[in-house]
Amino acid sequence: MWTIEKHGFEADATKDDALAQTFPDIIDRIDAQRDRLVVSVNLAVLVEPDVAQIPIPAAFDIRFQRRQNGRAKPIVIVGKDAPQQDPDLITLVADARRWAGELIEGKASSVLEITVREGLRSGSVSCILPLAWLAPDISTAIIEGRQPPHLTAKTLRALPELPLEWVEQRQILGFA
Questions:
Q1: What is the pTM of this model?
Q2: Domain residue extents for the chain
Q3: 3-state secondary structure string, the chain?
């Protein structure tokens, strides 16, 4: 339940607008509950605003039903050991496979051509290209987000050389 009580509330109205000036004086309290608002007022202010009188309390019970506005945005709390996909890592492996496919199929004539077309630094494509030959279970784990926590696109780029032997790849990259 929420409660709002009157504490020095000032009206933002002109002197000609008597109702707007007295409105803050009328409301004593607003209680917001789950399905209703209870507004407590002092009606004595409406009778003679300038004369001090005995309060005339009144309460208005305003029922309402909350409606959702727009689409729901669920909050998903992920478990500590739940898979976490790394979009940068997935993109890195996908680029390597795509570029290897272009070279094998003859769609690209050289690594330099791919480097220029992609707007990358010299040597970037050559460093990423060996990722096209990752062990299938490693590629699947990366796509599903089951890679070891330390394995990121940055750490994969930083490897001096990735062996072609799948058993060695698993050892170097931290797969059991």
A1: 0.54
A2: 2-63, 87-173
A3: CEEEECCCCCCCCCCCCHHHHHHHHHEEEEEECCCEEEEEEECHHHHCCCCCCCCCEEEEEEECCCCCCCCCCCCCCCCCCCCCCCHHHHHHHHHHHHHHHHHHHCCCCCHHHHHHHHCCCCCHHHHHHHHHHCCHHHHHHHHHCCCCCCCCHHHHHHCCCCCCCHHHHHHHHCCC
